[in-house]
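Q: Got a minute? One more chain.
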Amino acid sequence: MRRLALDQLPGVRTQVNQPAMTNVVIRSFNVDLSNDAVVVLTAEVPGGYLAAETPAPVKKPASRSGRKTPTTKGTQTAPPPTEEPIPAKFVSRFIAVIARIDIEGNPQKLAASVTDSSRLDVAPRLELIDAVDVDGDGLAELLFREYSFDQKSFIIYGIGHGTVTKVFEGASQPLH
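A: Always. Here it is, folded:
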């Protein structure tokens, strides 16, 4: 499952190894009473710093040649303003993988969610709560908590043999 989770990170597989994952939680459920395990892995991969952004240079209006700005000490040109780069920002990646174990004992990915701490407003991170039977049909669904930049909500996924279907998405509430 750890290898399957790391495969979800594009271009990072050679740079990150399995021990680099932190907050790893692996849980297994028999959601449809078929004795086929559905495994959910959630983890954090501490990333690095995003490249420091430098502000765009300010364009000065074109000056006429030979003309200098007057100052109290004579004719001197004004020094260019100094530009300070915006400090680098530390980014962590969050992975959630839902897989079903096949007959040979290998996990087959059903769904994956990958985001990083700089994009939580666009792609929230998922945290597994538990397997619950929300519709009373005897089959379990997976209940997740979604954390965005400043809000949290709940989402429920139904698990089929080869599919994951969103069953419910709750309203969000602000984080305190």
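A: The chain has a mean pLDDT of 78.
Q: Perfect, thanks.
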